[in-house]
Amino acid sequence: MLFSLGLLRRIARELPRYGKLTYCLYRDPRVPQRNKLALAAAMALILNPVVDVPLRLPTVLAVRLFVEKAPKDVVADHQERIALGTSVFDQDLRRSREGLRGRINALRGLALERVGRRAVQ
């Protein structure tokens, strides 16, 4: 077997945290632009339907390298914020949810208004 069950569990457990960290580092102006461009190129490989599955492994390594090459103090800062739930990712997620709730409530109000008009007619 290529992967042991323990390794797969560890990957599954750490993937959300690593994804959040990558997102936060990508948004941080203290991370060098060349690192962000390399990550963007790697992510383009993932989304490219022509690329074969074995060629996607270097992309995972590129994401790992992106985090490792980021300034250590910036990584530590984001890891602390992720643990506290105050990271850029968490803030963006909250804003997105609030915006979505607002749009849903507005649509609900429009639908109720139309139903009310039909009942009057």
Describe the 3D structure.
- It is a single chain.
- The longest helix is centred in the C-terminal third of the chain and has 33 residues, at 88-120.
- This protein is elongated.
- Helix 1 crosses helix 4 (72-84) and helix 2 (33-47) runs antiparallel to helix 3.
- It has helices at residues 5-27, 33-47, 57-69, 72-84, 88-120.
- It has five helices and no strands.
Features:
121 residues, mainly alpha
Short description:
The chain is an all-alpha fold and 121 residues long.
Instruction: Describe the main β-sheet briefly.
Output: none
**SSE class:** mainly alpha
**Order of secondary-structure elements:** HHHHH
Question: What is the residue-mean pLDDT, rounded to a whole number?
Answer: 85
Topology readout:
Blueprint: H1 5-27, H2 33-47, H3 57-69, H4 72-84, H5 88-120
